[in-house]
Amino acid sequence: MIARAMTETSLAQRLLNGDRRALARAITLVEDDRPEGWELVREIYPHTGKAEVVGFTGPPGVGKSTLIGALTKARRAAGRTVGVLSIDPSSPFTHGALLGDRIRLSEHFLDQGVFIRSMANRGALGGLSEAALQAALLLDAAGRQDVFVETVGVGQAEIDIIDHADTIVLVLMPGSGDSIQALKAGVMEIPDVIVINKAEHPLTDTMVREIRGVLSLANLDRSPEEVRGSWRVPIIKTEATHGRGIEELVSALDEHRAHILSKGQLSERRRRNLRNEVLAIATARMRRRLEEELREDSEFQHLLDEVVERRLDPASAAATLLERAAGVEQPVE
Ligand SMILES: Nc1nc2c(ncn2[C@@H]2O[C@H](COP(=O)(O)OP(=O)(O)O)[C@@H](O)[C@H]2O)c(=O)[nH]1
Ligand SMILES: [Mg+2]
Questions:
Q1: What is the pLDDT along the chain (333 residues), one digit of tens a residue?
Q2: Which residue range is the domain that position 165 belongs to?
Q3: Which ligand is nearest to the CA of 88?
Q4: Is residue 186 part of a domain?
Q5: Residue 58 CA: which ligand 1 atom is closest?
Q6: Ligand 1: which residues within 6 Å by Cβ?
Q7: What is the tally of structural domains in the chain?
């Protein structure tokens, strides 16, 4: 026990010192949903909140990983340390995926100032989203100044992760009309920055105009003060494979950060994000607890039989379940 505690203390300390191997091990612990992982996060949490977290979302194949590679290069050139979390089980951020790109990310794999990790482990009980958020905290505590999180903009889990970024970048490419539809329909929240990658495509400017149209429609629901005081979403054209437009993207990210800082929106945003995180973890644990409690519960089996036999509707059964759960833990008044 004592030996274990000592090892964990030193892991936290090594992590806080920016040790990459400690960071890698720590992320594995949270990815595997190990109690030591949660313990570690508890220990290092007071040291977090310094990293600038940028989330990148968008359909597969638009060039998110390549773009993050180019951006990493720019941030490194400015002397900043970078952490990258890729949460895309379909296209992990590997050497292989990046070979052939002009921007050789393999060079970053040798750079001590860059830490790249892809997460695809959905086996953990807590879920991928929970683990990814903890991993982002670990990168932050390890002193990474920029943390880039890549997710595919489809599932709810991915969207939850992106919710925890200070700045959200939606990456599209000419022809990804579905995403414009999603923006229009309000399915997708308006991001802070929109990137049209693969801008060498002849339909790029048409796409930029379409998106401007959607954004101005979105502004119609807002009061004039809201529009005046608010951020105007820039649309940046990039060609990630050739590093084109990256300077503009860097400026847009810096401007967005300055904007939310000046308006006090950063702390507001973080508060909202942390609230969501606390709720997400609590909900996941409650569900887990409930599932465990009900696994061999004959009363529940009976309730379920009633539902199956159409004598009781599902909502009433759920209400009974909740009443019973509340009854057990109800404090004496
Ligand atoms: N033509 C062109 N191809 C690009 C550009 N950026 C990335 N790609 C290529 O698009 C493919 C998908 O890129 P990737 O970064 O893996 O996309 P992700 O799935 O969004 O992460 C790769 O073959 C890249 O080399 C670009 O600006 N122009
Ligand atoms: Mg990718």
A1: 555 555 555 899 999 999 999 999 999 998 888 899 999 999 999 999 999 999 998 888 899 989 999 999 999 999 999 999 888 665 545 543 443 333 445 566 678 899 988 876 554 445 667 788 889 999 999 999 999 998 876 555 555 666 678 999 999 999 877 777 777 776 667 789 999 999 999 999 999 999 998 888 777 777 776 666 688 999 999 999 999 999 999 999 999 999 999 988 899 888 988 888 888 788 888 888 889 989 889 999 999 999 999 999 999 999 999 898 777 554 555
A2: 47-265
A3: 2
A4: yes
A5: 20
A6: 60-66, 91, 97, 101, 197-198, 200, 239-241
A7: 1
Q: Is residue 260 part of a domain?
A: yes
Residue 86 token pair: 């890729």
CB of 197 closer than 8 Å to CB of 246: no
What is the distance in A from the centroid of ligand 1 to the CA of 60? 9
Q: Which of 241, 244, 246, 249 to mutate to test the pocket of ligand 1 (most atoms within 8 A of CB)?
A: 241
What CATH number is associated with residue 67? 3.40.50.300
CA-closest residue to ligand 1 atom 28 = 198
By C-alpha distance, which of 108, 66, 112 is closest to 86? 66
Q: What's the rounded Cα separation, in Å, for the pair 185 and 208?
A: 18
For residue 78, is it within any domain? yes
Give this prediction's pTM.
0.85
Report if residue 150 sits inside a domain: yes
Ligand 1 pocket check: which of 66, 196, 204, 248 to mutate, most ligand atoms within 8 Å of Cβ? 66
Going from the Cα of 57 to the center of ligand 2, the distance in angstroms, rounded, reads 10
